[in-house]
Amino acid sequence: MRAEIGGICARAMQELGYLGAGTIEFLYEDGRFYFIEMNTRIQVEHPVTEMITGIDLVNEQIRVAAGGSLSVRQEDIRVEGHAIECRINAEHPATFRPSPGQITYWHPPGGLGVRVDSAAFQGYRIPPNYDSLIGKLIVHGRTRNECLMRLRRALDEFVVDGVDTTLPLFRTLVRNADVQNGLYDIHWLEKFLAAGGLEA
């Protein structure tokens, strides 16, 4: 399926004559992909690709924008391991209501296979005017199981005080059997939260 959808995207970009970074988004349900949109920019989730390929996508984007060529060919790209990204938002973890305010304590995790992309710090004031994203936690492992174990540890180490964040939701999800076994779909989270899953 990965090869099929990748081929469709590559052919579409060739036919459009598109150059530059871009992401084509799909939903997957009942064994089929459904096109959502194309974003003609680097996406928030690009570190997942960087972690499993070792390629700096931002650097490649700048090279192409400056009139250069990519530093790698598609056939040279190797996908290794598994990566998961959690978007740490200043939001209530069950209602997703924004939680602007001052971060009174900030302690991001570290260690092998753990990456945190953020400009937040202790004392930073989150304004109410913009997107509530304050950081991204990206974890890589040789297998999905190893990745989930590292993610569990990294989420437990991540401390943000002073505002509500989505960290409690992710801590709950990473311990959920459906999530661990990949038994979820595009409706799963909505049903989980409606059933009081975060409080369980």
TrEMBL record:
Q: Where is the ATP-grasp domain?
A: 8-66
Q: Which reaction does it catalyse?
A: N(6)-biotinyl-L-lysyl-[protein] + hydrogencarbonate + ATP = N(6)-carboxybiotinyl-L-lysyl-[protein] + ADP + phosphate + H(+)
Question: Could you confirm whether the keyword ATP-binding appears in this record?
Answer: yes
Sorted alphabetically, the keyword list is: ATP-binding, Ligase, Nucleotide-binding
Q: Which residues cross the membrane?
A: none
Mind telling me which Pfam families this protein's record contains? Answer: Biotin_carb_C (PF02785), CPSase_L_D2 (PF02786)
Q: What top-level class of enzyme does the UniProt entry assign? A: ligase
Listed SUPFAM superfamilies: Glutathione synthetase ATP-binding domain-like (SSF56059), Rudiment single hybrid motif (SSF51246)
Q: Which domain of life is it from?
A: Bacteria
Q: Which residues form the Biotin carboxylation domain?
A: 1-194
EC identifiers of the protein: 6.3.4.14
| This protein's record includes keyword Ligase | yes
Gene3D superfamilies membership:
ATP-grasp fold, B domain
Q: Which PANTHER family match?
A: BIOTIN CARBOXYLASE, CHLOROPLASTIC, PYRUVATE CARBOXYLASE SUBUNIT A
Q: What is this protein called?
A: biotin carboxylase
Species assigned in the record:
Methylobacterium jeotgali
Underlying gene: accC
